[in-house]
């Protein structure tokens, strides 16, 4: 039942599409929570004591899993915090220290990397304390605003948001909700006896989630144990109540899967590639809903067939460089465009050309539509003389060699 709750949740299924870290974080977070609860339950009293050697072994496993969750994404800290809270409430001081210490130790390479590259171990957060690593404050604020939603600020707001998380909201991103099954089974928690460590873990995790953000996918590290809690509540119910709960779970899960199928069909433009009605190349050569707009795929396919194997392509306005089978530099919309700095640092157009050659760049791929949409002035914050310097450089040293749609590839001469 817990697997059905998780597997049929739209936010879980649809978070598996993009190259995001939510599902691995949820896996490690679930392992952390389960092991911590086992550590708390190894003593004669299921909610008190350190549990001897077996309890310490479970604590070590929880710490390793918690470190992997936290090192995968900051939201893994929800699972670590909830696990430590369970152990502290059971007076298992040593296991709690083990979980906290191992979680920090295992995830430390991520924080060390941030400290080395940005001077801030928790970059991009706490910039006022550790600094922003040279990034403009407006760019950092834009990134955080685009990837986070404001937390709930009251019990009423939290209750309303749980409703929105369950059924979605008009205008919200498609699929970024839990589905109705979780909310439907919530009353079962109050009608059946359940493990106090599991209840505490879920309570701390959910409160921490809503206190940090409204975003559904950021709660995935604690969602598996929410599903386990609800499944146990249904399993321990008696008679007609159990039948009613199982029936409600099956119906809500069926409805969730129907919604997932509908969203998938819409996002894939009728599943034309899956049904053999269109080739993958043709599908990717044109823009579609679900965030795939103004593609450079046709230009990249040409580059893969015609550019030298040692070419280095600098992408401008195009962050999706993975389809290039040549070396490439493709800054994301939140990263600094190196060309902006190179032009600033050069004295004249010949200096711009020399700097590009020094960096090994042989070609530029420019997606003009995406560059305009992102904002030329934001991506390339040049003064009037600097822009004139680049224009003079481009007139002499850049030759367009292929164009398809809004994407153009230039050879550096």
Describe the overall structure.
By secondary structure, this protein is α/β, with parallel strands linked by helices. It contains 20 helices and five strands. It has helices at 2-7, 10-14, 22-40, 52-72, 77-89, 93-118, 127-130, 137-147, 155-167, 180-185, 196-212, 223-236, 239-267, 280-284, 297-306, 338-345, 349-358, 368-374, 376-379, 384-397; strands spanning 312-316, 327-329, 363-367, 398-404, 407-412. Strand 4 (398-404) and strand 5 form a beta hairpin.
How would you describe this structure in keywords?
single chain, 413 residues, 5-stranded mixed β-sheet, 20 helices, 5 strands, 59% helix, alpha/beta
What is the spatial order of strands in the main beta sheet?
Answer: 2-1-3-5-4
Enumerate how many helices there are, as a single number.
20
How big a fraction of the residues is strand? 5-15%
Gyration radius from CA atoms, angstroms: 26 Å
Structural class: alpha/beta
Largest sheet: 5 strands, mixed
Apparent shape: globular
Give me a quick take on this structure.
The chain is 59% helix and 6% strand. It has 413 residues and is α/β, with parallel strands linked by helices.
List strands and helices in order, with pairings.
Blueprint: H1 2-7, H2 10-14, H3 22-40, H4 52-72, H5 77-89, H6 93-118, H7 127-130, H8 137-147, H9 155-167, H10 180-185, H11 196-212, H12 223-236, H13 239-267, H14 280-284, H15 297-306, E1 312-316, E2 327-329, H16 338-345, H17 349-358, E3 363-367, H18 368-374, H19 376-379, H20 384-397, E4 398-404, E5 407-412
Parallel strand pairs: 1-2, 1-3
Antiparallel strand pairs: 3-5, 4-5
Helix pairs in contact: 3-4, 3-5, 4-5, 4-6, 5-6, 5-11, 11-12, 16-17, 17-20
